[in-house]
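ok trying this again, last paste got cut off
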Amino acid sequence: MKIQIVLEPSDEGGYTVYVPSLPGCISEGDTVDEAMENIREAIELYLEPVEDDWIAIEGILVKELAL
């Protein structure tokens, strides 16, 4: 899966990075490489399913889709 991210120079130094297609998915880093690593982790956590949020309804199917 490929996803666009935006890196903005921070006033304090380093970079703020966010994912426009994932509202609220934001991170930062002192270097571009660090910011990229941090946003990768943030994206993985953002997309991780939270099983407690699932509502068990009779007849529903839960499948996994690899992108």
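PB: full thing came through this time. The longest helix spans residues 32-47.
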